[in-house]
């Protein structure tokens, strides 16, 4: 019986992850999640207590690899290229979190994600007394690019050559990561 409950929970989790990333918090109902998972809506609440709790449990981004590997001296361009190549799931999770950020716990989750997945790993790789400030400014710079591409859907940026964007925006980011003098 415990195995079936775990499988049901996993199906609900997988359905919620897909649906929230595709349609956002407001555009996804518990009934839709349940139907996609092939379960009764009451089971969704039984396993996750609320739609909000399920949203917070499913909307995760893993930015570790590009921030943790390779020399810091080339991280700016490499990270921007990684973001430009991000799949629909990464874009969907980012948009779902931003669009639901007015909800108290979601806004808190967004701050936690920003701190734990971007600022802290980056700060750990930077040198100097202002490493924390530069890591936070780098996060703001990256967030600006994602906002322009994915929220505002800036057509000029979206149509631009990805290599040129990676070099140009990556250079701006690199200036924060390894400032000259």
TrEMBL record:
Keywords of the record: DNA-binding, Transcription, Transcription regulation
Signal peptide: none
Residues of the DNA-binding region: 29-48
Pfam family, one: TetR_N
Domain HTH tetR-type, chain residue ranges per copy: 6-66
Superkingdom of origin organism: Bacteria
Protein name: AcrR family transcriptional regulator
């Amino acid at each position: 019986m415990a195995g079936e409950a775990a499988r049901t929970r996993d199906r609900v989790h997988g359905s919620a992850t897909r649906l929230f990333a595709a349609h956002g918090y407001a555009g996804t109902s518990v009934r839709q999640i349940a139907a996609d998972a092939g379960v009764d809506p009451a089971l969704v609440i039984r396993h996750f207590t609320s739609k909000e709790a399920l949203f917070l449990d499913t909307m995760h981004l893993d930015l570790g690899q590009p921030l943790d590997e390779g020399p810091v001296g080339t991280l700016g361009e490499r990270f921007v290229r990684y973001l430009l190549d991000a799949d629909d799931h990464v874009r969907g999770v980012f948009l779902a979190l931003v669009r639901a950020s007015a909800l108290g716990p979601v806004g808190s989750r967004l701050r936690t994600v920003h701190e734990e997945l971007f600022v802290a790993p980056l700060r750990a790789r930077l040198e100097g007394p202002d490493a924390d400030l530069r890591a936070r400014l780098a996060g703001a710079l990256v967030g600006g690019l994602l906002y322009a591409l994915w929220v505002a859907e800036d057509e000029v940026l979206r149509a631009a050559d990805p290599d040129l964007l990676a070099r140009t925006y990556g250079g701006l980011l690199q200036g924060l990561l390894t400032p000259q003098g």
